[in-house]
Design a protein that fits this description.
Layout lengths: L9 H5 L25 H9 L19 H12 L19 H10 L18 H11 L21 H12 L19 H11 L4 E2 L3 E3 L6 E4 L2 E3 L4 E9 L2 E3 L8 E14 L7 E4 L2 E7 L6 E7 L2 E7 L3 E8 L5 E6 L8 E13 L5 E14 L6 E11 L2 E3 L3 E4 L3 E2 L1 E4 L4 E3 L5 E4 L8 E4 L2 E4 H4 L32 E2 L7 E2 L7 E4 L3 E6 L3 E7 L6 H9 L4 E5 L5 E4 L6 E9 L12 E5 L8 E7 L4 E6 L3 E3 L4 H7 L1 E5 L5 E5 L5 E5 L2 E5 L8 E5 L4 E3 L9 E5 L5 E3 L3 E3 L5 E5 L3 E7 L6 H10 L3 E5 L5 E3 L7 E7 L4 E6 L1
Parallel strand pairs: 1-4, 2-5, 3-5, 4-6, 5-7, 6-7, 7-8, 7-9, 8-10, 9-11, 10-12, 11-13, 12-14, 13-14, 14-15, 15-16, 15-17, 16-18, 16-19, 17-20, 18-21, 20-22, 21-23, 27-33, 45-51
Antiparallel strand pairs: 23-24, 25-28, 26-27, 28-31, 29-30, 29-32, 32-33, 34-35, 35-40, 36-42, 37-38, 37-41, 39-40, 41-43, 44-46, 46-49, 47-48, 47-50, 50-51
Helix pairs in contact: 3-4, 5-6
């Protein structure tokens, strides 16, 4: 039996009981032939729910097997397939009741005729045939690896069904009998099908237009969901399973609003009117729409961690506020020749495995685009509003358009560029004599290359679809970087012994591996494109260095503030976070004193207001200073109360920071005001104007079992306000989108807390290491998983 059928289509939920005459009679009472049957209870329940129908004589025939024609008809009805193919099978007359259903099934692509040109609509469906049909329905045939070797009778599974059975088994969609056998030729009776599906069919199916999901809050659905009709909106849902946008959507539209899918999202339908993702977080997405080119639009905080394209698609992410709203895009080898893919917005990585396709990037950015060595005759069109940070070429490719390519690494002959990239490098599989065409000039790489950072290409025979297209040798690790205490860099008395320097000083960075070093503002997301963006915006700097070589940064012109050193090696591996990468740049002496940062610490109820240079108390005593500071609290009722900073509270000055600590917790928004003249810089020049800073203490976090925990043991947390609490590996960018993407990828955990109540973060399947517990919008704590 199929013990778990998590991803079976809606068609299979009801296919077991439909007759060839397609009776519309629903049984109000249990049919005679189901009374006393071992599956009577389940059969009656399905009748009451309208899932199954009886024959015109009122019988259910529970011990009959499912016929192929019956299955075709129900799948077509559930998925909304109405367009027939031109068919001519030797055993199916035009006037047969199943002729139209078979024509629709062939057009939809989930069924084929036999080698003898028969379709056998009256034949019973075997277990292996059902597996093949399910794999085709879910577009899983050929896109993933699976193994049928787990079954005791694997040797008896024929080659034509082995891969689909293995794929479904790999995804826990089908399983074997208690003796470990699959029995591929075995038939499933109607009653057996109902019982099997009843045990596993907890997934909702949306087959009519409408809005589904709560108006507010979040509904969690355990299991899989299917959408089989156009005009469906899902909102405020967390789907702990897979989401299938079925082919029944046709060329219509579907909208997801504030939806999180922890499993795989399979887009099998939809047209140019779009699959709309609004504030929605998807982990793994597969597009396999044989009906139409599908347009996927991301808006707000929507994000996709990884998407595989098996058919033509348009992805528009320029309205998404999440940086790199789409992580990795893979153009699979299943894409047909001359297929067109359009990408608009910010993408972290694009990997082309298809041959002879057109990839268009009208505007936006791609951090890294790799053309695989099997992807010859690819055409790449880069619009004038598009920016490609790195293009790794392993096959003949033609690059057109006015867009900017910052770096092209050429590993194969036949590359053509309408516009010369900013920099061209010779890949490990090419030489200086490798031909390249720039405009109408036939050149060699030796003519155009500007050596800077050699980037090794994949090993021989690579065609892999790994996360990083450039495969490091075994044992390669991320670089480590630091700012040594030399030259003008000094230790500060500020918290965490932060290094300080003055804008205009020369500071040094070191990486233990050959590659680039970036000096960028501390809050910069650790994406290559963002690092390069900060450099281009003159808010950061980049330099190249050998391993363990001091690399100098001349900081004149950089804004004052907190910075970090980030290393990037030749395999595009980036250094993890560590405190000795941080530095604070203070303004030069002649620059006017100005406030430039605010850091709120919710756990300890204090706030740090930072300035662009060291500050002094101009009023003599800290008590005098505290009396001069005012704050306003904004109550939920809308009233505003102005107060003098309380005597029981505390003020401290530390280098360029003034810290305000509140003795009593303050739940409401606060505005602190420091009057002009209350502070001076280290030369005695006073603060020229009032400084008003507004902030609110976020949820305060308590980790009940701090320190170290064993993997698999829960972490208990308590917050003083309702909050989303994340458990994420230290060094991961802590934007909301990045945290949710980490959840989707299984590398982080999340729990929604209620104020004052204990909640638990799971640690199963997390790798050992240093982690951070983050109450979103509030405080955080460190923890180690062993």
């Amino acid at each position: 039996m199929f013990q778990r059928l998590k991803r079976l289509s809606a068609a299979l939920l009801v296919a077991s009981m439909l007759s060839s005459s397609w009776s519309s009679v629903y049984a109000a009472d249990a049919p005679v032939d189901s009374q006393g049957h071992w599956a009577q209870a389940r059969l009656s329940a399905w009748l009451d729910q309208g899932y199954i129908q009886g024959y015109e004589d009122g019988s259910l025939r529970p011990d009959d097997s499912i016929k192929r024609g019956e299955l075709f008809a129900l799948i077509n009805r559930i998925y909304g397939w109405k367009e027939p193919a031109a068919i001519s099978f030797a055993d199916l007359a035009n006037d047969h009741w199943a002729f139209a259903e078979a024509a629709k099934a062939v057009k939809a692509g989930y069924i084929e005729g036999y080698e003898d040109n028969s379709i056998r609509v009256e034949a019973s469906v075997s277990r292996q045939e059902l597996a093949v049909i399910v794999a085709r329905l879910l577009r899983m045939n050929g896109e993933e690896n699976g193994s049928a070797a787990k079954f005791a009778d694997a040797a008896s599974i024929p080659g034509w069904s082995r891969a689909p059975i293995g794929i479904l088994a790999e995804h826990a969609i089908v399983d074997g009998y208690e003796d470990g056998a699959f029995r591929p030729a075995g038939l499933v009776t109607r009653a057996e099908a109902v019982v099997m599906l009843d045990r596993a069919s907890s997934s909702p199916i949306y087959h009519k237009p409408g809005v589904y999901g709560p108006a507010s809050g979040t509904e969690t659905i355990k299991g899989n969901i299917q959408v089989t009709a156009s005009g469906v909106t899902l909102q405020n849902m967390k789907i702990d399973g897979d989401l299938i946008l079925a082919a029944g959507i046709g060329k219509g539209d579907v909208t997801l609003k504030n939806v999180t899918v922890t499993g795989t999202t399979r887009i099998l339908g939809g047209g140019v009117n779009s699959v709309h993702l609004v504030d929605t977080v998807l982990g793994i997405v597969s597009v396999n729409n044989t009906i139409s080119t599908v347009r996927i639009v991301l808006k707000g905080t929507a994000s996709i961690q990884e998407i595989s394209l098996h058919t033509a698609a348009i992805i528009v992410a320029d309205e998404a506020t999440t940086e790199h709203a789409v992580g990795k895009v893979t153009l699979t080898g299943q894409l047909p020749a001359d297929a067109q893919i359009t990408l608009v917005g910010s993408f972290e990585a694009v990997h082309v495995l298809a041959q002879r396709i057109l990839l268009e990037i009208p505007k936006g950015s791609v951090s890294k685009l790799t053309i695989d060595r099997l992807s010859g005759q690819t055409k790449l069109v880069i619009g004038k509003e598009a920016n490609l940070l790195s293009l790794i070429i392993h096959a003949a490719v033609s690059v057109f358009g006015e867009g900017n390519v910052q770096l092209a690494v050429v590993n194969a002959p036949g590359a053509q560029f309408e516009k010369q990239p900013q920099r061209i490098e010779i890949g490990s599989d090419a030489t200086a004599q490798t031909p390249v065409k720039i405009g109408d000039k036939e050149l060699t790489l030796g003519d155009v290359v500007k050596p800077l950072l050699p980037v090794p290409g994949p090993s021989a025979g690579s065609g892999s679809d790994d996360d990083d297209e450039i495969v490091p040798p075994p044992g390669t690790v991320s670089p480590r970087s630091l700012i040594p205490l030399e030259g003008s860099v000094t230790e500060s008395v500020y918290v965490n012994q932060l290094r300080t320097a003055t804008v205009g000083d020369t500071v040094y960075g070191i990486s233990d591996q050959r590659g680039y070093l970036y000096l960028v503002p501390g809050g910069t997301d650790r994406y290559i494109s963002m690092l390069d963006y900060m450099v281009a915006a003159k808010q950061g700097q980049r330099a190249f260095g050998e391993a363990n070589q001091k690399v100098s940064f001349h900081t004149a012109g950089l804004p004052a503030g907190d910075y970090v050193i980030v290393a990037l090696n030749s395999y595009y591996l980036m250094s993890d976070y560590s405190p000795d990468q941080e530095i604070r740049f203070l303004a030069s002496p002649e620059t006017p004193l100005a406030q430039n940062s605010v850091q709120v610490y919710s756990n300890s109820r204090f706030v740090d207001i930072g300035f662009n240079k060291p500050i002094r108390n101009a009023l003599g005593t800290m008590e005098d200073l505290s009396k001069s500071v005012t704050y306003s609290t904004y109550k939920p009722t809308g009233t505003v109360t102005s107060n003098t900073y309380e005597a029981g509270d505390m003020i401290e000055i530390m280098d360029s920071v003034i810290r305000f600590t509140f003795a009593a917790g303050q739940p409401d928004p606060i505005t602190l005001t420091l009057p002009a003249g209350t502070l001076t810089d280290d030369r005695g020049v006073p603060l020229a104007s009032d400084v008003a800073v507004s902030f609110e203490f976020g949820p305060s976090l308590t980790v009940v079992n701090p320190g170290a925990v064993q993997a698999g043991s829960p972490i208990a947390v308590i917050t003083d306000k309702a909050a989303d609490v994340y458990l994420v590996k230290r060094g991961v960018s802590a934007t909301k989108g990045d945290l949710e993407r980490a959840i989707g990828s299984g590398t982080a955990k999340k729990v929604e807390t209620i104020a004052g109540q204990e909640a638990f973060l799971a640690t199963d399947k997390l790798a050992p290491g240093e982690y951070v517990v983050i109450a979103w919008g509030g405080s955080s704590a460190s923890i180690v998983i062993r």
